[in-house]
Amino acid sequence: MPNHFHLLIKVKPLSEFEVRANAFPSEVDISKLSAGDIVSELFRRFFMSYAKSINIQEARNGSLFQKFFRRKLVDNEVYLSKLVYYIHHQLRHHGFDELDYKSYPWSSYRRILEDRESSLNKKELLEWFGGKIEFIKFHEQYLDEQVIGHLTIEDQK
């Protein structure tokens, strides 16, 4: 997608977090932050650093991203399955019907099916769907957007 992206991340339980003492301002009591707060802050910093880097590279100033980072908790198994489907089929959702999710170069779909190593947790995701064949079958079905619309964060049109 030319103007946004979706990430599905699995956050470790807060008890497993290893937060460096200097990762947050000294006035912040890290023990009172939720895992979501910590992840949001780390993504905020990542996006700021990325924007600074691009601004230097392109000799430009100002914001690189138009909208704020937003997150939504995946709190059940049905939601997870439908969200993975939505992420891979977002081209259709945004009117890019001529593009195929199976070959779109910026989609994780192909990478998940490849046997090469990557930083994606492919094994866990494929096992979740019951293997590669079931993962493919799930993606080949048609899920009406009304069925998954309430599961996503979208700007009002």
Report on this model:
The structure is a single chain. The chain is an all-alpha fold. Helix content is 41%, strand content 0%. The protein has 7 helices and no strands. The chain has helices at residues 35-57, 77-88, 90-93, 109-113, 122-129, 132-140, 145-148. It is globular. The two termini are 17 Å apart.
In short:
The protein has 157 residues and is mostly helical. The chain has 7 helices and no strands.
How do the strands and helices of this protein lay out in sequence?
Blueprint: H1 35-57, H2 77-88, H3 90-93, H4 109-113, H5 122-129, H6 132-140, H7 145-148
N- to C-terminal distance:
17 Å
Percentage of residues in DSSP E strands: under 5%
> What structural category do the secondary elements indicate?
mainly alpha
Q: How would you sum up the global shape?
A: globular
Q: Kindly state the mean pLDDT as a whole number?
A: 81
